[in-house]
Amino acid sequence: MTSTLTIRRPDDWHLHLRDGAMLQAVLPESARHFGRAIIMPNLVPPVVTSRDAEAYKARILKALPEGMAFTPLMMLYLTEETDPDDVAAAHASGLVTGVKLYPAGATTNSASGVRDFDKVRAVLERMAEIGMPLCVHGEVTDPEIDIFDREAVFIDRVLDPIRRATPGLRVVMEHITTKDGVDYARSQGDDLGATITTHHLMINRNHILVGGIKPHYYCLPVAKREEHRLALRDAATSGEARFFLGTDSAPHTDPNKESACGCAGVFSATNTMSCLAHVFEEEGALDRLEAFASLNGPAFYGLPPNETTITLTKGDPVPYPEKLATGDGPVTLFDPGHPLLWHVTA
Ligand SMILES: NC(=O)N[C@@H](CC(=O)O)C(=O)O
Ligand SMILES: [Zn+2]
Ligand SMILES: [Zn+2]
Description:
346 residues, TIM Barrel, eight-stranded parallel β-sheet, three-stranded antiparallel β-sheet, 12 helices, 13 strands, binds N-carbamoyl-L-aspartate, binds zinc ion, EC 3.5.2.3, DHOdimr, zinc, dihydroorotase activity, metal-binding
């Protein structure tokens, strides 16, 4: 029985750090275990231009505690006004790693996102030319489409047409939650990647709704039926290069979650590595945790894996707190519903 596992330091290919007091509180939770993260640009107002990204990156580095090494990989929030030249220059200088597409209204702070996909065609074409990845929140917003079907419908109606119209565009399907997402990713070439969150490997929609509504399990895309969770587990633990970790750790304060109209987002930065070791052990795939968390992501983004390592050791339950205190108020940690035995020890 394996009780110790050393892997290359992991990276998080989808992370919300927010800003101000929240940034200050949550950044160490990621920097403790992760070497790099793709930083989501859905601030209010969003990170739209290269200037915005430069200023946000400086705020993140300023909030990083002394002695912690962590590299934020910046993203630009795609709007219908985004300037292809600004995007290309930000990529060429190394300031920005990719561009994030939010369909307008699909999720938290997505109001400035894209309504008319023809209006972003020039940006996408330029990105395909220069090899800059597009990260996509893949849900349609059509009110007639059931919320549990929005990812599958997005693949057919939006994602596949965009990819056909823009050959060579590298795309990441962010936080896939369905077997449809897994199957589509598997049916395509190596210009398509997909991130999977920790929580979607551990909960299905029953966890949100059975026995009383659990706002801390509510996120977007919303967790689906068990068959979808099992498909995600199969994908994450397969070792296939197209699947990699994006925690989508998305802090909201308790009052904003525990509300008549609660925000979408699960905060998992603190205990993600313990959760993942648990999942991969259950699947008999501990030997593939490194591919999912530390190797496949950098390979997709054309970056080397981290030089340093982390060690996970199995022992007594890890005493994670229930909440993280922040200057904006308490943030509840993702609760996997059972003790976590894997400690990050080094
Ligand atoms: N995942 C979420 O439920 N929420 C994210 C936005 C997102 O990634 O869609 C957030 O910013 O809170
Ligand atoms: Zn999203
Ligand atoms: Zn997110």
